Amino acid sequence: MRPALSADAMRLAIPALSLTVLLAGVFWLQPRAMSYVGLNLLFNLAVPIALATIAQMLIMAVNDLDLSMGTFVSFVACVTATFLRDAPLLGTLILAGAVLVYAVLGVVIHLRDLPSIVVSLGMSFVWGGLAVLLLPAPGGQAPDWARALMTTKPPLAPIAIIASIVIALVAHLLVMRSSLGVLIRGVGGNERSVERAGWSVLAARAAAYGLAGFFAVLAGIALVGLTTSADANIALRYTLLSIAGVILGGGEFIGGRVSPVGAVIGALTLTLAGSFLSFLRISPDWQIGAQGVILIIVLALRLFLNRVEKREKGQ
Amino acid sequence: MRMLDRVARKPWIWSWVAAFVVWFATIMVTGGASTLDLSQAALTFAAFSIIVGIGQMFVITLGPGNVDLSVPSTMTLAGTVALKLMDVDNAMILAGLGVAVLIGIGVGILNYALIKALRIPPIIATLSMSFIVQSAAIWTNRGLRIKPPNFLADFTIANTLGIPNVAIIALVISVIAWFLLERTIYGRWISAIGQSMPAAKMAGIPVDGTRFVTYVFCAVLASLAGYLLACFSGGAALNMGTEYLLMSIAVVVLGGTAVAGGDSNVPGIWGASLFMFLVVSMLNTYGLGAGIRLIMTGLIIISVIMLAGGRQPGVR
User: Which residues of B touch A115 (CB under 8 A)?
Assistant: First the structure.
């Protein structure tokens, strides 16, 4: 009897495979990318996207969806490039307040039984407005420590890779191994049974939202560390990217079925898709479109592997 | 009294009340001087959200996870290609309209093909599709801004009996949508699918066919809105659809359609679309900056959903 892969491992195998294939494609097209500097350049923009994807994943774990992720990360980026640099204490307070707002949103959504899509839609206007107030024009400057952190050159592997591994590990421990993580996923799986087991669904949802806010704040800081300045529209695409990353990584919209390691891999895949296309010398007109095609191919691959898995189980 | 009670229980009433309150608050400031202008502008701009919103509403009615994210790029592509084809020639107006509708049908078919063939959640399928459609729009547009034919440009800006022409078109579409939804078997089918897909399947409803038609319908309305918007604003721009992504979802939900699907209504779309425009113009009248305006818009959306929400326990 051959050792069968567990369903969870299978869930992870597909995103990992797509990432490997893409990476092989990039190396084949541009062998010079196979170096310390090359890898860092390929992946450094993936770090903030991975953090935002983890944040979105936490929200999706409780069966909700956050449409304000992009504007929130932009807002955090604006705070980081202004207050966090000039008045670190005030900046920290603002960001802590923003995380608190996220937790409160979780409470409100739960208590009033509101659709998360609409509430986060409304919040996306609020964060966008605050960001425009802070930085009406692109500007600001990254705090030196954020810049230093994102540009360090550790031995062995570039910072982008190390950061992605650390993010995946921390998120994995938090979501898959801690009792809070189990509780959060339980709310997504079956809210009523979690409640009957004596847990507070309210607290779980608030915790999920608060943690999501925290990861999104990290995403904003990491982004400014890379770009050195901020802009009110800097991260608008993160809303869709983060949702796509979670799904690419094997997560589902409902049922609390998420995979933190998969989500990080999904974010890396999405980032790499962009580089892959520029190496292919595709006309810039079609770059966005080709990204869509890659997304479709990866999902088709997932369907195919899922079918293979089912057939093997059936035997 | 009984009648009042019945009206108050309609899900769409809140958006109408909100729209009226904001309208009133605005004309109070201007002293009633620009009441007619404001109302006409509101109807004109709301018309575009209404057309897109109705399509989105049909899709959202299909149940959880059904949202069409390709609406903005479909609008852009339809507007760009139609204007390019018409090339300022009045004789080509119908041909342009035909091409716009064909683009809508094409995008709708591809959307549903992805959803069905790859079993991708509709959000991701339409998102991937929107990337491809957006690229096609960039490719055809090439940064050129072609003017619409004179007749069409005049028609979209003009009024008939004091009512903007685009609002009349939106009204016609709304009546058709209302009829489809409330008076035909198709409307019953999409509500049934939205309430429970397995149950609908067992009841013998052609689930695939119904969903397919709905996605095509939504894309066609989006391309129609793109066509009209491009003519109204004097040319197609690559970013002209962007704001309609969130707008189309917002008007549907504020209008009282259940986000979880299975329950929709057309009048609410009108109330919500008027409301969304009026809020912005009210805050403009008060002379507030872009930042404050955005924040207020967001807070108002949240307050409306908090007031109107909670009436359907167990729905998220």
Answer: 253, 259-260, 305, 309, 315-316
Residue A109 in tokens? 């959504």
- Please give the CATH number for the structural domain made up of B13-24+35-308: 1.10.3470
pLDDT tens-digit map of A95-125: 999 999 999 999 998 888 787 877 888 898 8
Element housing A306 (H / E): helix A287-314
What whole-number distance in Å separates Cα of residue A132 and Cα of residue A129?
5
Alpha helices in A173-259 (DSSP H): 179-189, 191-196, 201-227, 238-248
Q: What is the pLDDT of residues B244-262, one digit of tens each?
A: 887 888 888 777 777 666 7
Q: Cβ neighbours of residue B250 under 8 Å, at least 6 residues apart?
A: A118, A121, B272, B276, B301
Roughly what angle, to the nearest 10 degrees, separates helices B207-232 and B165-183? 170
Whether A7 and chain B come into contact, CB under 8 Å, resolves to: no
Instruction: Return the domain boundaries, chain B.
Output: 13-24+35-308
Phi-psi region of B161 (alpha: psi -120 to 50; beta: other; left: phi over 0): left
User: Which residues in chain B have their CB less than 8 angstroms from residue A133's CB?
Assistant: 289, 291-292, 295
The answer to whether the beta carbons of residues B122 and B69 sit under 8 Å apart is no
Asked if this assembly's ipTM is beyond 0.85, the reply is: no
The token pair at B180 is 């489809």
The reply to whether B209 touches chain A by the CB within 8 Å rule is no
Give whole-number Cα distances, B197 to A256, B63, B261, in Å: 21, 8, 11
Please choose, from the candidates B244, B312, B257, B206, the residue with its C-alpha nearest in 3D space to the C-alpha of residue B59: B257
- Shortest CA distance to A121 belongs to which of A64, A185, A80, A77? A64
Query: Any chain A CB within 8 A of the CB of B62?
Result: no
Candidates B22, B197, B257, B54; CA nearest to A117 is B257
